[in-house]
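Quarterly update from the structural biology core.
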Amino acid sequence: MSPLKLYYSPISTPSRAVLMAIRNMNVDVEVVTLNLGTGEHKSAEFAKINPRMCVPTIVDDDFVLCESKAILMYLPHKMGMCKGRAFYPKCARQRALVHQRLLFDSVDFYPNISNLVNLSFSDEPILTVKHKAAIVAALNVMETQFLNNGDFFVGNSATIADFAFCSSVAALIAIGFNINDDYPKLLEWYERMGTLKGFNELSAGAQQTGAMVRKGLKNSFDDL
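Predicted structure, tokenized:
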């Protein structure tokens, strides 16, 4: 069987989440790094694989899948539920909580990161109190609700939801948002994530994203 092929960019927050999950599930993978800055994801060759021309994208034999959350849910099934259960609970209620967390990241948390990236390339690249307030609102939910009953976002072991949040949090920190003592549970969780496979790789990519965004912005969160 051929290894899973992952089309990936280190400056893509969703890409980093998927790669960290792959590292922890010990998936046999071939990583194809695309340079988004030079438009490699818009090549005719990649468009044949994924007409949406976005990363991350996986190719598993003749099966092609994009969208990071969908990929995160697919990976445990690929590895077999005995191996993947630690990252994707068998219990329907626990799994529903994992889905809830993933949707929260998609709708309420990660869009803040995406907005900051887009802002840094805009004609008025200025952070406002509204940007900060939206982030604080999401972090408060994560701190007071999601991390209130265990060491990770669902229970006491890492799930695919933790990989998604870890990538978003790493990007936010690299951009310059100070996750301080107001979020002790989140800080402890982030330290725990730092012990898992692929964290250094994820963090290095987040630093690239952060440097790119900071370069484009005319101010920082410290100015607000």
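The radius of gyration is 17 Å.
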